[in-house]
Every structure is written in C-alpha cells, then in structure tokens.
User: Fold this.
Amino acid sequence: MLADRLHIAFSDSAADTIGKALARLGQSELVLALPEDLACGPLEPSDPRSRAAWPAAVAFNDEEIEEVLEHRIEEFWQAALAKDARPIVWTSRRVAREDAGFLEFAWRFGDRPYDVIDLTDLMIEVRPPGGGPPKLCPAISPSMLCADHIIENHILDRARPPRQEEREAWRGVWQRLRAENAPLRVLTPDLDMVSAPITYFDGALVSRIDLEWHKTARIVGDVLAADLDASIFQCSDAFLAARLMVLVQAGVIESRGDLRRLGYSEVRLRPANETSDPG
Assistant:
C-alpha cells in the first residue's frame, strides 16, 4: 500500500536526504530511488536485465551486483508507475544522472498527474559550520543537501505540477536521445542533454596524467571538478575509474593497485609506448 504521497529521486543519496527531511517533519511518506544511472549506457533495449548488465560489461564485471541492480530497477518502476500514486519528483538539470532519470520518468508517466521539485536554479541559505550568518549557495541537487537544508529553506513547498508544454518538451528530448541510443548522455554549458561517445571523458583523463605516478583519486577528482564552476555534474567516479581501466588495457597509460579503490591505486602515462584505440 503506497503512502499518501510518493517522492521519487534519482540516486540513493538523494533519496536518503529527502527521507531524513520527511522523518524530521514527522511525515511518513515513501521515497523511491532509481538505482541506475540513465546518463550512462545505451537506452535500448530498456528492460532491467539489459540495463543492469551494461555497467558490469564496461566496468568491473560483478555479476552479483548486476543481479541486485536488475531486481532494484524492476521494483523501482513498478512502484513509481503505480496507478494510485501522484508522485513528487525531485530533479536537477545540473546533474546528468538526475536529468536523465527525470526525462525517462516523464516519458514513461505520460499525461498522468505528478509534481516536480526542480533544484536547477534554486539558491538556498546555508549556515557555515563554525557559525555566523547564512550564505546563499546553489542547491544543485538533493544529493548535495542535508535534511536541514530542505527543511529550513522550505524546499518541500516548491512542488508544482508541470505545464503541458513542459511535458511535451521533456518527452521530445528523451525520444531523441532514446533514438540516438548513445553510450553516454552529457550536459552542455547551457544545461541541454546531448548524446556522447563512450570515449567522451578519456581526453580529460589523459590530459591530467604524466610520466609520474599519481593517485587515481586525484585524477578522477580533477575531471569531476572540471565543471564545478558551472555547478554541473556529469558522471560518477566509478565510471571514470572504469575508463582508466580501459585506457590501461589499450596501452595508453599504466596502473598499479586496484583501480576500483581510487585511494589505493595510481596511474601514469606509459613511457614510449604505442597506443591503440580505447573505444
């Protein structure tokens, strides 16, 4: 039996923050988290088994994680699309994972009623840890907030039904992206979502690597931070680590340690080597 109100988020961390805020307000409302990142991987076929298999195929081949992910994807969509629910959907066009997840939801949900809390351009008051007057900061995403931020800035009151022209625009964008069926979807500086090749981040990774050994965490962190000035978040650290593994296999760079453990592995350019296509 669903709660009176159903909240939908597009990552576990976002759902956790929303759930904590609701609990502090004494509201027992269900919060669902889409467990997959729809900014990564081909969109067709779209069944849970195919979607769950893609991260394992391009990253670290963990069949146990694949089985759990398949089950969680199926459970999410069954609950999110339940006919007796009017969801409140949390999203941000500054986070590729959230934008892609939201577009998939809007595409699947059609013209049925739902409400949206969009944090894309929201500025909130944040109290410094050491005290002092609050400062205005971009909200960006529920995954980057704490429960107090949601409560003190009355973010729950921002839920609104989308206009019909918005619904049609969102579905049109996602229809195009689904037809293109690219390995990745990324955000432009204007916050438009576009298709991209699997090698999209490889140049950025290699440009930060030289002949000295560097911690994998530092290289990945530098790439993730590249869009921070524009408050844009493109992909996960796990995906970039997987691309580093592909670059190692292609002979572009070399590594030592387990690349799945970013703080305990290192990478460098392979000295005087011939490289092959890492696609």
